[in-house]
Amino acid sequence: MKPLKQIYYVLLSVLGVLFLPYIGAWIKYEGNFSKDYFNFPALSAPDKAGFSVLAFSMAAAFFLAVVVLYAFPRVYGFKKVKFTPTQPSAKIPLPIWFWVGLVVWGLTLFMTCGKFQEPKWLLNWAYIPLFWGFTLMLDGWVYIRANRNSLLSKSPHEVIGIGAAATVGWLLFEYLNFFVDDNWFYPKADIVPEDEFGVYAIIGASGLMPAVFEIYNLMNTFPAFRHRYDQGPKIATSRRTRNIILIVALTGLFSISFFPEVMFGVLWISPLIVFTVVLENLGIWTPLTPIKDGNWSPFLKYSLCYVIYGFLLECWNYFNAIHDPLDPANITAYTPAHWVYSIPYITKFHVFEMPLVGYLGYLPFGAYCAVWWILCAFLLNIPTQFAHDEYSEVRAEPLEIYTN
């Protein structure tokens, strides 16, 4: 297929994710949206359905199945992968950007978690240095473990590209959040003017994806983990099957405004499916491509990356606010981007602001980050080391792989 036609289909998939939810909502409300339907940032959310034992039990069972998959992959038919370790390389000093990141991240974390009310210029924009400071630290760690081979040291332009792609990639989810009646909202966003929050959201979103690729590269510097999921069940799908899955995902996006509570999870799954299927049909590599050969490592590791990063984000977010033990809804925060959740059926057993089984949403989002960057890099004709697993693995040492 000619490149121009490939670009056409990729753009069509993006437009589908953007417009199908809007078309569904327009039909539901007959074009008469409430005046606050598309308000951003949302300061509150409509009341949702209460706790459901059945829904929670189903989600908890899936949560447990995922934990078993990561901890004991052989239960699911994965073969054990062994490696022949070599002598570690000479010690390398931490690069300067690690220390810069540590100072920026540490100072910002101290100010936010210390519940300081000043200086406003820092607190109002706190998540930007928090996200990027952490990313610089991760890159410095990868640098010393991977023999001076890290994103910033070898491909600083790609870090900038991923940050730019992250802005659009995350704002897409903020947009989809309108159609599920605000699964998350920002109760203290009115600390700053609405237009300032909009600028903050655009710039701040740039820090939500680069850390994923840094964590992924860091994982690959640990030989015992790097190939842990290389020899799994082989699952190949025909083009017809993929197209059926694509239609189901697009239908889900169209339908979410009709059933926002029942289908709130579609928000996290459908964009990943749509973009992955379209790229696969065009012959463009995605983290799910190697599954047909039994190699689940890229997909499972990218998914795990955002569970790790998401847990840290939730931790930082929770401890920058004061919570009333008698009234959990009564929150005092001095950073406008503090977020809370309004999720039906599963809203019990919180870990920070997030319900425990809600962390499942970070699994598809981690894979989405990789797929979204590959899609953006393709559209913009930007070379990326993440377009194939062979080039995305940063090696700490040579390995000899064999299976039992």
Task: For the structure shown, list the relevant keywords.
two-stranded antiparallel ribbon; disordered C terminus; membrane; transmembrane
Helix content: 40-55%
Structural class: mainly alpha
Say how many strands there are: 8
- Cα distance spanning the termini: 41 Å
Question: Strand portion, in percent?
Answer: 5-15%
Main sheet specs: 2 strands, antiparallel
Runs with pLDDT <50, length 5+? 391-404
User: SSE order in H/E notation?
Assistant: HHEHHHHHEHHHHHHEEEEEHHE
Instruction: Give the count of structural domains.
Output: 1
Q: Tell me, what's the shape?
A: globular
Number of DSSP helices? 15
The mean pLDDT is 92
Q: What is the radius of gyration computed over CA atoms, rounded to a whole number of angstroms?
A: 21 Å
**Physical arrangement of strands within the biggest beta sheet:** 1-8
What would your notes on this structure say?
This protein has 404 residues and is mainly alpha-helical. It has one domain (3-403). It has 15 helices and eight strands. It has helices at 3-28, 53-71, 96-113, 120-123, 127-145, 151-154, 156-177, 194-204, 210-219, 223-226, 239-255, 266-281, 297-319, 362-380, 389-392, and strands spanning 81-82, 184-185, 321-324, 327-333, 340-341, 350-351, 354-355, 402-403. The strands form four sheets. It has a two-stranded antiparallel ribbon. A two-stranded antiparallel ribbon has the order 2-5. α5 (127-145) runs parallel beside α9, α7 crosses α14 and α13 crosses α14 (362-380). Keywords: Membrane, Transmembrane, Transmembrane helix. This is Mechanosensitive ion channel protein MscS. It comes from Salmonirosea aquatica. The chain crosses the membrane at residues 7-29, 49-72, 92-112, 124-144, 156-177, 197-219, 240-259, 265-287, 299-319, 359-380.
